[in-house]
Structures are given as structure tokens and as C-alpha cells.
Amino acid sequence: MPLLETPFASLDLIRQPEQQNEPLQAFDAADEYLLNHLAEQQPSAETRVLVLNDSFGALAASLAGKVYVTSSGDSFLAFLGLEKNLARNGLAFDAVPHVPASEALKGPFDRVLIRVPKTLALLEEQLIRLQGQLAPGTQVIAGAMIKHLPRAAGDLLERYIGPVQASLAVKKARLLIATTEAKVSVVSPYPTRYRLDAPAIELLNHANVFCREGLDIGTRAFLPHLPKNLGSARVADLGCGNGVLAIASALQNPEAHYTLVDESFMAVQSAAENWRAALGERDVVVRAGDGLAGQEPQSLDVVLCNPPFHQQQVVGDFLAWRMFQQAREALVTGGALYIVGNRHLGYHSKLARLFRGVEQVAATPKFVILKARK
């Protein structure tokens, strides 16, 4: 893999999760552009730089030790990438303070570097949270590959930060440079809420939660077919989002024990708040993580999963395949993984390579619900 070469550092970087013969690199031209732009401003070691949505630590690791850098984002995998890439390049794994997107920032900051996220609601929430955190005259510089840079990103910067200037394109990347001006304080429109009829619950959704405005159609197809009569089973909701699958299952299985895991800090925050609202003080484990990577082998009886088919802008079934492998490792012999998936993704044949029995529980014109037994 090529090195990331900038005026700040020369770094050997890896993506997360790691896979053999990785076809993609852990940085792109937008990272280079952001770092080169900052270097032209000749920041000192005391310059306070906030990095938002750093994919795998390319920005923060480059700046470590050169400026006073803080990193913040909503991806546990990106946070893991930052730690691993710092260590990989001879720096302490905790050399850069990291603030999950679910937690408040502590400014003031002199410069803000932003990788424009796929979900513009996350960008909006992050810009709102910068209120009162920016030193006078601070530049907020957002970067992206042009094909992933919507016009609305510039509109949000203008609305919440100040006048925006778009850079020239370099290697198919562009920067949006906003200069801070006085703004009237804004109350965030997030989290949003919606209600379900069955089960009769209200679900809260922080800014970066998948299908924030309403239940996604895959989950809607899955809910009527969740396993019943689980007794005191140990159940995990893998990629839990706002927690709806686990909460619906827990309401039907009052003695079962639940673990909810997602790689989005805002999803985990939403799931924990929704669990408390629906189930009060009932015991639960809710955590941000790399799927079930930290789960003890053979410690679960049931895994529920509505697997993702993309990582940021990269589409594919790599993450789903990895989740299936993690589920198999974590399940006891005889335990079961229940998933919902688009028919065309062919999950049945993939599961059959890992599990001894795969059956179709239900189907709609678009989705299949499958049960894979270890």
C-alpha cells in the first residue's frame, strides 16, 4: 500500500476492519488536500485543531505531535483505525484524544478539519455543536472527493459557521473553507422520534442513526418473525441501530438477557435511551464495538442481525460476511443466527458455508428472513 505523504508526516496506514489483500487504501486525495491546506497556514504546536470524521486516522495521526489535535467521529472502526495507525507509525496508541460523536466537545479550537460524512444530518449536528467552541476567526475546512460532496454540505457550513469559499479541484477532491462569523444560537433538530404500533413504542434517533425518520423496510419485515419462547437465552442484537430488534424481542421474552452492539456511537446512545424508555431498569449491555469481536466464544444462544451492505461510501458484503463469522464464533453449538436481507444478496448460500443448517423463516417480495443454526 502507498504511504500518505504530507508536510506533516509520511505514514503507513491500514483500514478497519482488516482484510487480506485489501483492495482499498486508508486515505484519499481529500485527506492529502486538507493536510496540505493546513500546512500552508504554518500551524504551531499550540494550534488547537479538531478533526471530524477521520476515516481511519489519516488526518489525526499525521498531525499528532505537530499541533494540539483532537479527533471526533461516530465510527468505532474509525477510532480503532486511529489507535492502530498511531501505533503502526511509532506513536502511542492514545497520542490523540478521541471524543465519540455522542459526547460533547471541549474547545475552543483554532482550526477544524472535516471529512464530509455520508449522512448530512451528522454534519449538521456536528456544526451545531461547534457553537461556542471556535476561537474568533477560526477556519472550518471540509473536504471530500467531489463525487461524494453534495451541494447541501456548503449550505450547512454557510448556515452554521459563516461565508464559504470552494477550492479548486485537486485530484478529484475539493475543500469548502468556511470563516467563522457571529451566529444566533440554534437548537439542534436531533434527536428525531417516531412511533411504532407493534410493538407500541416510541423510538428516539440521534443524528447518524440509519433510517432516522422511520423504520426501515427490512426491519419492518423482520419484526413479526422474531424468535419467541426464548426463556433465559442470551441474545445479541448485532448492528443494533436504535435497538428496535432487541427491544421488540425483549418485550416478548421477559427472562432473556440482551447485548446490543453497533459501531456507531450515536446508534448505541439511541439504543440505550430507547431501551430505558421501553424496558426501564431491566439489565442490558449496550456497547460500541467492532461487531462481536470482543464477545466470548460460545457465550450467546441467539443473534439477531439486519446486516449493513456498505461501509461509508464503499458498498459490498464484506461487513455482513464478517458479522456472520463473528456470530458463529460467539454462538453455542445449537445456537441460532436470525437475519433479514434483500433477496438478491444471496445470504442463504453464504450462511450455508458457515452453519450446519439454514432455513427460510419468512419472505416478502423484497426480503428473506433466515435462521442459521450452528
Characterize the structure shown.
By secondary structure, the protein is an alpha/beta fold. It folds into 2 domains: 4-179, 3-Layer(aba) Sandwich (Rossmann fold); 192-373, Rossmann fold (3-Layer(aba) Sandwich). The chain contains 10 helices and 20 strands. The chain has helices at residues 29-40, 58-63, 76-88, 120-129, 151-160, 217-222, 244-252, 265-279, 318-330, 347-352, and strands spanning 4-5, 10-11, 48-52, 68-73, 98-100, 109-115, 134-145, 164-166, 173-179, 192-195, 202-205, 234-238, 257-262, 285-288, 300-305, 310-311, 314-315, 331-342, 357-363, 367-373. Specifically methylates the guanine in position 1835 (m2G1835) of 23S rRNA.
Characteristic terms for this protein:
374 residues, alpha/beta, Rossmann fold, 2 domains, 7-stranded mixed β-sheet, RsmC/RlmG, SAM-dependent_MTases_sf, DNA_methylase_N6_adenine_CS, methyltransferase
How are the SSEs placed, and which strands pair?
Blueprint (H helix, E strand, L loop, with lengths): L3 E2 L4 E2 L17 H12 L7 E5 L5 H6 L4 E6 L2 H13 L9 E3 L8 E7 L4 H10 L4 E12 L5 H10 L3 E3 L6 E7 L12 E4 L6 E4 L11 H6 L11 E5 L5 H9 L4 E6 L2 H15 L5 E4 L11 E6 L4 E2 L2 E2 L2 H13 E12 L4 H6 L4 E7 L3 E7 L1
Strand arrangement within the widest β-sheet reads 5-4-3-6-7-9-8
- Number of DSSP E strands: 20
CATH superfamily of the largest domain: Vaccinia Virus protein VP39
- Principal-axis shape equals globular
By CATH reckoning, the class of the largest domain would read Alpha Beta
**Terminal-residue CA separation:** 37 Å
**Alpha-carbon Rg, integer:** 22 Å
CATH topology of the largest domain: Rossmann fold
Helix content: 25-40%
Low-pLDDT runs: none
Structural class: alpha/beta
Number of helices: 10
